[in-house]
Amino acid sequence: EVQLVESGGGLVQPGGSLRLSCAASGFIFSNYAMAWARQAPGKELEWVAGINKFGNNTLYGPPVKGRFTISRDDTRDMLYLQMNSLKPEDTAMYFCGKGIVAGPPRGQGTQVTVSS
Question: Which pick of 2, 62, 73, 86 has the fewest CB atoms within 10 Å?
Answer without folding.
Answer: 62
